Amino acid sequence: MTADFEAEARALRERYPRGTTALIPILHLWQGKEGYVSQEGIERTARVMELPPAYVESVLTFYTLFRREPTGRYRIQVCKNLSCMLQGADETIAHLARRLGIEPGETTPDGLVTLEAVECLAACDEAPAAQVNFRWCPRLTPEAADRLIDALAQGDAEVVRRYG
Amino acid sequence: MGEIEIVLKDALAPGMTRLEGYRAHGGYRALEKAIAMGPKEVQDEVTRSGLRGRGGAGFPTGRKWSFLPNDGRERWLVCNADEGEPGTFKDRYIIEKKPFMLIEGITIAAFAVGAHNAAIYCRGEFLEGIELLEAAIAEARSAGLLGKNILGSGFDLDLWVYRGAGAYICGEESALLESLEGKRGMPRLKPPFPAVAGVYGLPTVVNNVETLATVVAIIEGGAEWYASMGTERSPGTRVFSISGQVRRPGNHEFELGTPLSELIAAAGGLGEGRTLKAVIPGGGSAPILTPDQSDLPMDFESLAKVGSMAGSGGVIVLDDTTCMVRTSLRLLQFFAHESCGKCTPCREGTEWLRKILVRVETGHGREEDLGLLEDVSNNINGNTLCALGDASVGVLLSTLRAFADEYRAHITGGGCPLAPVASMSAAAAGPA
Ligand SMILES: Cc1cc2nc3c(=O)[nH]c(=O)nc-3n(C[C@H](O)[C@H](O)[C@H](O)COP(=O)(O)O)c2cc1C
Ligand code: SF4
Ligand code: FES
Fold it and tell me: How far apart are CA B172 and CA B188, in angstroms?
């Protein structure tokens, strides 16, 4: 899974040669493969960047998109900010939490879904706005959320293609 | 005054995300014209158009460009596509619908200021937009519209897209530059401003997505044409993102100075049987307007004059079913979460305000809490390193004034008169 990491990471360092600019792209690269950034991810990134692991970790922990815990196959981010709240986002988040049996920030025991309640996604016209694996998932009402989870659980080919 | 599409023109035309489609709708005529004019003329044209930045502060774009020192150092242009201001979704729309207009605008601006390097800093959630931009950049490069010797002019420009990783504060330009250098995105002490010491310490122009897209229209149509729209000190059009309790939320482009009521009408008006309670006119950082201000002209001066701000152009409409305490609470949770922690009033103050608002909203408010909210807010306002501090108390202070009775009713009545506490999920309330 992470076998090609070294070569790809070095290519990123060449693409962004100045300062430590390549660091965030390399962390995205690792997270894209592993789903989160483990201690191994930090250490291997540090080696490519020739930086202390503690520095890599200090940057990593500043940014909310980087996860430090194992993450589900589908990372569902539902916006809880004002425009979405006004269109029922709290209900969607509470509904998903109940249905999945987890709190926002957690992952289902089967590793299928990580649920997150996030800040404004710049999609307030499609409230309650959401993303699944960074693909747009507009108007996620509680009913739409049920349909989404059903489709993900059944491995619905179309849904897997869209969010996979 | 009214709805006019300049930046949003043909946004939904088929093929607009491909070079051929963009060119079929007049794309890249402006770049050809700019090259024929030369850098100085382009800069003068933008200055004469009166264009003001669309990122939040409304700073005149031509003037910003003129601040770059003439000291022979390499220059950079950075496009701010970190759009995260609550209620704002215009930059994402421009990126996803008209990526080439943004790229053309960046190319013209870089040509005008003599930058051979440019970056688009996109928020990390914009993965779909980033993919579109990367494909568009590749197409533009193979057509000779980016890279070496653009359109045979001798001008070179290398442009890349950078993916952020989730931090509202990285929209603040100096935090953005820190992040672009691979660091924690914390605002820098200013001066020096980015024009003097920006990315990698080099002279840098930071402009918003919509600002740069607008440059294309200005070069194509001319400064006089552009300045004939809008008001004298807020010329032209701007894209307003209208959301909240309206029937058809969406982006609409209006002449600056168009009355607020026309914007609300364009978004389908309020729901059946609802009445207007308040409007946040410039993203979650902007103090609210009340229904008696429905006809206020939406331009930089008019909004500043009434104590609010044009901000990001995000217009959030609230109707009579919405609780103002809960509205403030939601925004304070956001600001407390997004505070970078570098300065104490913002780091500590936003968290205290959030806690006090939780107790007021959930019926545990105390007599002295209203004074406390005001006091803590005033200790943040004007006392922080970057504008996030002031932003965090805009809605709170303005609702404390306009809806004092509603705050008081929460305390005397032991809870929210509008929304039963049970309907607020744990995620919405946050820890007490
Ligand atoms: C907390 C904070 C967040 C900001 N977020 C953004 C943003 O997401 N996009 C943006 O263009 N400007 C944002 N700004 C404003 C930028 O600092 C900067 O003024 C702007 O990018 C300049 O571009 P303009 O001159 O074209 O408006 C933010 C400012 C602050 C203080
Ligand atoms: S005002 Fe807040 S966000 Fe800005 S530098 Fe200070 S702590 Fe950071
Ligand atoms: S408030 Fe939810 S996307 Fe903006």
Answer: 10
What pLDDT, on a 0 to 100 scale, did the predictor assign at position B432?
A: 54
Q: B169 CB under 6 A from ligand 2?
A: yes
Distances (CA, A) of B275 to B30, B245, B409: 45, 10, 20
How far is Cα B166 from Cα B426, in angstroms, rounded to an integer?
22
No. of helices (H) and no. of strands (E), chain B = 18, 8
- Cβ atoms of B287 and B391 within 8 Å: the answer is no
Quote the tokens at residue A11: 């290519």
| pTM of the predicted structure, to 2 decimals | 0.97
pLDDT reported for residue B423: 45
At B261, phi and psi to the nearest 5?
A: -60, -35
Q: Do the domain assignments include residue A78? A: yes
Pick from B173, B163, B218: nearest CA to B77: B173
Enter the ipTM: 0.97
Backbone angles phi, psi at B162, to 5 degrees: -120, 135
Chain A, residues 29-88, CB within 8 A of chain B, namely 58-59, 62-66, 77, 80-83, 85-86
Q: Which of B85, B173, B388 to mutate to test the pocket of ligand 2 (most atoms within 8 A of CB)?
A: B388
In a domain, A117, yes or no: yes
- Name the residue with tokens 């533009």: B140
Structural domain span for residue A107:
74-163
Question: A36 and A94, same structural domain?
Answer: no
The answer on A85 and A45 residing in a single domain is no
Q: B71 exposed, middle or buried (CB, 10 Å; 0-12, 13-18, 19+)?
A: exposed
* Per-residue model confidence as pLDDT tens digits over A14-58: 999 999 999 999 999 999 999 999 999 999 999 999 999 999 999
- Please tell me the number of Cα atoms within 13 Å of B193 on its side-chain side: 9
Determine how many CB atoms are found less than 10 A away from the CB of residue A98.
11
Inter-chain CB proximity A81 and B330 less than 8 Å = yes
Can you list the residues of chain B whose pLDDT is less than 50?
A: 421-427
The per-residue pLDDT for range A111-144, each reduced to its tens digit, is 999 999 999 999 999 999 999 999 999 999 999 9
pLDDT value at residue B120: 98
Both tokens of B119, joined, read 């970056």
Question: Does ligand 2 have an atom closer than 6 angstroms to the CB of B347?
Answer: yes
> At how many degrees (to 10) do helices B209-221 and B99-113 cross?
80
- Cβ of B339 closer than 6 Å to ligand 2, yes or no, is yes
Start-to-end CA span in chain B (Å): 47
Distance A85 CA to ligand 3 centre (A): 8
Asked if A125 and B163 come within 8 Å (Cβ–Cβ), the reply is no
Q: Are residues A114 and A43 in the same domain?
A: no
Q: Give me the CATH number covering residue A142.
A: 3.40.30.10
Distance from CA of A39 to the nearest CA of B (A): 18
- Assess whether A18 and A95 both reside in one domain: no
CA of A139: which chain B residue's CA is closest?
Answer: B249
Task: For A4-153, list the strands marked E by DSSP.
Answer: 74-79, 113-118, 130-132, 135-136
Q: State how far the Cα of B428 lies from the Cα of B354, in Å rounded to an integer.
A: 12
